[in-house]
Amino acid sequence: MATPFNPQALTLLSQITELSPFYNDSQPGAREKLLSLTHALTAAVELPSEAIQRIGWAEPARFAALKVAIDLQLFDQLAKSGDAGLSVADLATASKADPILICKSAEDYRMEFWRW
Q1: Which of 37, 56, 74, 95 has the fewest CB within 10 Å, making it most exposed?
Q2: Secondary structure (DSSP) of 51-67
Q3: Cβ-defined contacts of 4-10 (< 8 Å, 24+)
Q4: What pTM, to 2 d.p., does this model score?
Q5: Distance CA 15, CA 82 (A)
Q6: How many angstroms separate the Cα of 74 from the Cα of each of 8, 63, 86?
């Protein structure tokens, strides 16, 4: 079955392109507007079945990964480390958790702010 065409998606893509120089220059409000446009773009091109999968599968998994990170105090450890960040081994030692659990939580929540 062919994916239905939504002309709104092209308008949103154009708006995202027009916004890119403002985002690149770190202008106030550009990041928030970009987030809004990308959410609208997702809604414009996402099939109902994809929305159901995202809501029913992906979002609960992200919440569970976030809960694990909070319970293990990973954010506290990262905040203490400052800009240097922490390795997975350091986080595992500090939280007394298995490094595999740390990695899995990072993947599920797309935590990309620590050094590997």
Answers
A1: 56
A2: HHHIIIIIHHHHHHHHH
A3: 4/47, 6/44, 6/45, 8/40, 8/44, 9/41, 9/44, 9/45
A4: 0.56
A5: 35
A6: 40, 15, 10
